[in-house]
Structures are given as structure tokens and as C-alpha cells.
Specification:
Blueprint (H helix, E strand, L loop, with lengths): L21 H16 L10 H11 L3 H7 L6 E5 L6 H8 L9 E5 H11 L2 H8 L9 E7 L5 E3 L2 E3 L1 H16 L3 E5 L3 H8 L1 H10 E5 L9
Helix pairs in contact: 6-7, 7-9, 8-9
């Protein structure tokens, strides 16, 4: 039984056995989702297997992560069709995450616009993770694949590929984590960003994916 009453203003609680009650966590996340997205927000039971994995990861529940084959030393790549709820779930996971593991959700499209305006310093900004003068920063790059190859003073650049290759170096040297949401398949990621990026991402992230026939919830 829970050690304390759970509601939308408190963190999810652990049971006496020191394991999280995942059904209570989902109820908590639904309440938080209603606060943020409105009364229509709901986490359907068909999505529970995916949400359980995300909860286990972001609460750093090691036994459950081991059971699901989720590596806590890697980031998350959440893949699925348009409208299945990837971005809203990752935004909700920020509320489960301990302070030292907090992350920023940043649309890839916004990064592409920043690159057009400010050039190559934007790659450095998101590669090194030193946003807001903080130490290496965990970022969730949202909606990978909707940005295009961009030109800055006539030079074409695959901005996200360069960012991921640089963040891989920091993943190896400083354990910097990267999260991603995308509609792309693994083969499409390779097509758009190259084999090197696909290979690096395989080492950097846990792949969690919605079925291709998941319905649009928007």
C-alpha cells in the first residue's frame, strides 16, 4: 500500500516494498496531463507497456528497467507515427525526473530556424549542451526528421547529424545523455542522417516505439 496519498501536486510515491506503484504513477501523470493539455488528455491502456518503460527509466527504477531491457546509462529514442503522443509523454516525464536528471525538450524545427539565423554556433550550443551556462545538459530533441538540410551563407549543413555526432563524443567522455522523439524508422534515420549517426545513436539511446498503427490522439 502507498506510504502517502498521491495527487496531482506531489511526486509519485513508492510502496512499502520500495517499488513504485505504476498504476498510481499513470493516474498521477494523467492528472498532470489534464493540467497541461486540458480535460481530453488520457493515457489509453494500449499505451501502458510503453509508458511503463518510460516511467521505469525516468524514475531510475533499476529492477524494472532490467526487466524491460532498458539501459539507464543511455538516453531514450521514442519512435512512432504522427499524433501518437510522443511529445506530450516526454514533456510529462520531466515531472518524474530527479533534479540532477532534468532535461530540456527542444523541437528540431526550432533548432533549424536558429541555425538559419545564427549559423554554426547553434551546432556548438546544442552539441556541447552548455545551455544557460550550465554543465553538459540532457536534451530531448523533439520531432527529429521534420527539419531539412539547411544552408547558411550558401553552405549546406545537416544540423542534427552534426549535433548528434558531437554529443556522442560527450556521451563517451562525460556520459552526456540525449533523448529523441521521431516519426522516422531506423532505416529512415540512416537515409537522412547517414550510417555513422545511426550507429552512434544505437549506442546512445534505448529504442522505445509505438506500433505503426497507433491512432492519432490529437
Amino acid at each position: 500500500s502507498p506510504t502517502e496519498q498521491n495527487n496531482s501536486t506531489q511526486q509519485p510515491v513508492k510502496t512499502i516494498q520500495n517499488h513504485y506503484s505504476y498504476d498510481e504513477v499513470i493516474a498521477w501523470l494523467e492528472n498532470k496531463g489534464i493540467e497541461i493539455y486540458g480535460d481530453r488528455f488520457k493515457i489509453p491502456e494500449t499505451d501502458y507497456p510503453i509508458v511503463y518503460k518510460l516511467i521505469a527509466y525516468f524514475l531510475k527504477d533499476e529492477p524494472t528497467c532490467f526487466q524491460y531491457g532498458v539501459n539507464l546509462k543511455k538516453g531514450i529514442l521514442l519512435s512512432g507515427p504522427v499524433g501518437c503522443g510522443k511529445t506530450s509523454l516526454m514533456n510529462l516525464m520531466k515531472y518524474l525526473t530527479a533534479t540532477e536528471h532534468k532535461f530540456l525538450v527542444k523541437p528540431c524545427r526550432d533548432i533549424s530556424f536558429e541555425f538559419i539565423q545564427d549559423g554554426y554556433q547553434i551546432i556548438h550550443k546544442y552539441s556541447k549542451g552548455k545551455l544557460y551556462e550550465l554543465e553538459p545538459k540532457t536534451i530531448c530533441f523533439d520531432d527529429l526528421g521534420i527539419e531539412n538540410n539547411l544552408k547558411y551563407y550558401g553552405n549546406e549543413c545537416n544540423v542534427m547529424a552534426e549535433i548528434f555526432l558531437s554529443r556522442y563524443d560527450l556521451f563517451i567522455s562525460k556520459k552526456l545523455l540525449t533523448h529523441i522523439t521521431t516519426n522516422l524508422s531506423a532505416s529512415e534515420i540512416e537515409k537522412y542522417y547517414g550510417n555513422r549517426v545511426r550507429s552512434r545513436l544505437r549506442q546512445m539511446v534505448n529504442l522505445i516505439f509505438f506500433d505503426s498503427d497507433s491512432k492519432d490522439k490529437r
